[in-house]
C-alpha cells in the first residue's frame, strides 16, 4: 500500500553491531537462517517495497566487503553500504549522512522526504506496517511501531530490591520500523550529545528531545521482534521454514490419463496449504509457471507417467535457474512417477534409479532438492 501523495522515501538499516548477546564469532546479522544471512531478509523486505528509493545498510568497517558480497550473491538492488559507528545511534547517524553530507559519501544520494529506520536484525517486516509508519511520520514528523509489553517493567533501588513497578497496561515496547521526516531526525542527530549517541537506544526520543516532535505510535504486528539471543535465531529459522512450506505448485503433463491425479492432488492439499495447479509440461515455457517461480514458490510436485522423467525435471530446473529472482531458499522438486499399468510388476530399472540419484546430486549443489516417488495404481476394470 503506497503512502498517499508524492513522498520520497528511503531506508536506513543499522547492521553494524557485534551481536554479543547472541554469542559466537559471527555478528548475528551475518548468521545464516535457512542458508541465508539474516541481514538479507530485512534488505529483501525493503527491496520488495517499490516506493522505497534507496536502502542504506550500515555495517562495521571489517564487514563492508562481507555485506557487498551478500548484496551481489542475493541480487539485492538499490542498496548502498555505509560504514557504521561504535554504537547503534552512531551507525544510524552515519547512514543518514549519506543523504546530507557530500564529503561523507562518494556519491551523495537524493535526500528523501521521509526516512525509515529499521534494525537489520528484524527480518519479518511487511509493506503494510512500513507504509503506516511512513504515512504517520509524514503527518506527525516521526512515527514508530509499538507492541504490548510481555514482562512488567520494574525499577530497582540502590540495595538491589524492588523500588517500584510500572503499570504494564500504560506502557508499550518500542519496536521497528520507525520513520521520520528526514530533516527532523537529521537535525536531532546533529544536536545529539555524545552521551545520547553512546548510550541511547531510542530514535523517537531524540526527535522529541531535540526537535520537540512527539512521534505517532503505530500498533505493530507480532513478528516485528528483533533477533537478539540465540533463541531468536532458532525462532526466525522455524518461522521462515513454516512460511516456505505454505505453498506448492503441482505440475502435471497434459495427458488425460494424469489429469485426474493433477486435479485430485491439489484438491486434497488445498485445505492445508496454498496450491497452484498447472497441467502443462514445463517445456512449454509456461508463463503461468514463470510467474509462480518468480513469485518465490519453493515447492514443486511434478506428476508424470514416465519412469524416469529427468527431461521434464531438468526443464523445470532450467526455468528456476533462469528466473530473474535468485533462489533464496532450498527448492524442493518431487517427481511423482505414476504407473497406471495392468500388470502387477511395476519395476523401475536400477539404471533409472541411478540416473535419478545422479541428477539429484547435481541439482543439490544448486540448492534444488529433487526427490522421486513411484506410485503404481491399477484402474479397476468395470465388469
Ligand atoms: N554499533 C552498532 C550497534 C548495533 N547496530 C545495529 O543495531 C541493530 C540493533 O542493535 P542490537 O540488537 O543491540 O545489535 P548488537 O549491538 O549487535 O547486539 P549486542 O548488543 O548483543 O551486541 C542491529 O541490527 C545492529 O547490527 C549498529 O548498526 N551499530
Ligand atoms: O537496544 P538494542 O541495541 O538491543 O536494540 C535497539 C532497540 O532498542 C530498538 O531497536 C527499539 O527499541 C526501537 O528503538
Automatic annotation (TrEMBL):
One Gene Ontology molecular-function label: D-ribitol-5-phosphate cytidylyltransferase activity
Pfam families: IspD, ISPD_C
Domain D-ribitol-5-phosphate cytidylyltransferase C-terminal: 246-378
Residues in the signal sequence: none
Function: Cytidylyltransferase required for protein O-linked mannosylation. Catalyzes the formation of CDP-ribitol nucleotide sugar from D-ribitol 5-phosphate. CDP-ribitol is a substrate of FKTN during the biosynthesis of the phosphorylated O-mannosyl trisaccharide (N-acetylgalactosamine-beta-3-N-acetylglucosamine-beta-4-(phosphate-6-)mannose), a carbohydrate structure present in alpha-dystroglycan (DAG1), which is required for binding laminin G-like domain-containing extracellular proteins with high affinity.
Name of protein: D-ribitol-5-phosphate cytidylyltransferase
InterPro entries: IspD/TarI, ISPD_C, ISPD_synthase_CS, Nucleotide-diphossugar_trans
GO biological process: isoprenoid biosynthetic process; protein O-linked glycosylation via mannose
Locations listed in the record: Cytoplasm, Cytosol
Species for this entry: Zosterops borbonicus
Amino acid at each position: 500500500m503506497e503512502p498517499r501523495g508524492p513522498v520520497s522515501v528511503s531506508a536506513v538499516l543499522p547492521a553494524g553491531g557485534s551481536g554479543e548477546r547472541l554469542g559466537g564469532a559471527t555478528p548475528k546479522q551475518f548468521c545464516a537462517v535457512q542458508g541465508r544471512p539474516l541481514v538479507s531478509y530485512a534488505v529483501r523486505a525493503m527491496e520488495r517495497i517499490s516506493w522505497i528509493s534507496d536502502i542504506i545498510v550500515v555495517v562495521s568497517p571489517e564487514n563492508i566487503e562481507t555485506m557487498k558480497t551478500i548484496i551481489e550473491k542475493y541480487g539485492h538492488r538499490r542498496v548502498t553500504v555505509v560504514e557504521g559507528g561504535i554504537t547503534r545511534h552512531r551507525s544510524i547517524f552515519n547512514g543518514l549522512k549519506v543523504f546530507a553530507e557530500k564529503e561523507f559519501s562518494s556519491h551523495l544520494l537524493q535526500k528523501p522526504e521521509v526516512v525509515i529506520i529499521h534494525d537489520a536484525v528484524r527480518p519479518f517486516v511487511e509493506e503494510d506496517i512500513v507504509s503506516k509508519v511512513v504515512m504517520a511520520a509524514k503527518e506527525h514528523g516521526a512515527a514508530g511501531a509499538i507492541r504490548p509489553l510481555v514482562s512488567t517493567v520494574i525499577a530497582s533501588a540502590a540495595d538491589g530490591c524492588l523500588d517500584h513497578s510500572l503499570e504494564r497496561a500504560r506502557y508499550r515496547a518500542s519496536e521497528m520500523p520507525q520513520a521520520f521526516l528526514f530533516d527532523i531526525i537529521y537535525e536531532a542527530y546533529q544536536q545529539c550529545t555524545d552521551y545520547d549517541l553512546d548510550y541511547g537506544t531510542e530514535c523517537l526520543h531524540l526527535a522529541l528531545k531535540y526537535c520537540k516532535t512527539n512521534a505517532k505510535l503505530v500498533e505493530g504486528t507480532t513478528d516485528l521482534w528483533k533477533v537478539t539471543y540465540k533463541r531468536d535465531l532458532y525462532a526466525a529459522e522455524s518461522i521462515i521454514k513454516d512460511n516456505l512450506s505454505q505453498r506448492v505448485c503441482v505440475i502435471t503433463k497434459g495427458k488425460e490419463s494424469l489429469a485426474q491425479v493433477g486435479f485430485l492432488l491439489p484438491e486434497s492439499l488445498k485445505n492445508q496449504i496454498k496450491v497452484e495447479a498447472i497441467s502443462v509440461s514445463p517445456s512449454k515455457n509456461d508463463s503461468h509457471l514463470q510467474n509462480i517461480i518468480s513469485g518465490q514458490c519453493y515447492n514443486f510436485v511434478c506428476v508424470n507417467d514416465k519412469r524416469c522423467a529427468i527431461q521434464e525435471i531438468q526443464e523445470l530446473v532450467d526455468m528456476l535457474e533462469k528466473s530473474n529472482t535468485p533462489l533464496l531458499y532450498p527448492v524442493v522438486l518431487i517427481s511423482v512417477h505414476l504407473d497406471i499399468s495392468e500388470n502387477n510388476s511395476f519395476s523401475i530399472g536400477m539404471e533409472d534409479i541411478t540416473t535419478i540419484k545422479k541428477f539429484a546430486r547435481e541439482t543439490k549443489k544448486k540448492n534444488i532438492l529433487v526427490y522421486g516417488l513411484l506410485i503404481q495404481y491399477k484402474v479397476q476394470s468395470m465388469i
